[in-house]
Amino acid sequence: MMQPEPVSIIGINIDSPEMVSSEIRSIINQATELWGGERLLRNWTEDSFRKVLLDKNLPETLQRLKTRDKNARIVILASGDPGFYGIAASVLKILPLEEVRIFPAVSSLQTAFARIGTPWQNAGLISAHSRPIWEVVGLARRHAKLGILTDPVQTPAWIAKHLLNAGIQIAARSSVKI
Length: 178
Description:
There is one protein chain. This protein is of the alpha/beta class. The chain is 30% helix and 18% strand. It has helices spanning 22-29, 38-41, 58-63, 87-94, 108-115, 133-142, 156-165, and strands at residues 7-12, 33-36, 50-53, 74-79, 100-103, 124-127, 146-149. A 5-stranded parallel β-sheet has the order 3-2-4-1-5, with helices on both faces. β2, α2 and β3 (50-53) form a beta-alpha-beta unit. The longest helix is centred in the C-terminal third of the chain and has 10 residues, at 133-142.
């Protein structure tokens, strides 16, 4: 039985999406289908592939990977590192590892720490998106420095309020919008 073409999950640097290596550009240019969010797809105007928008119907759309044409060259674009609270985890629940290739880029938290000029090797890192706030509070109890991915509901201000209510002192308030 013929092995299907692997699905490539490619992280794109959020600061400069056009700055990809020749290897990555070649993988994208050979794609028959390019999947991603609207913001990422906008950077690729070639007509050589079909674009698949990943939006609110993400779980249903990703299920199509199970029944994909075995010759299809599918590339999924992700911002930053797709393995850091990204789409790689969702794809790997659907496809076996041998059918997936992951190419990370600089994560949004790496970019945020760089923008505020702060080393981050000893920071606690977490995503507040779709997680209970107690997970963030628990991490804050163990780390003096945090990198938190937020969303429109669990904003930096909302999180700071909960941290203060939990008795955690906030020494500096730095928030970077990426």
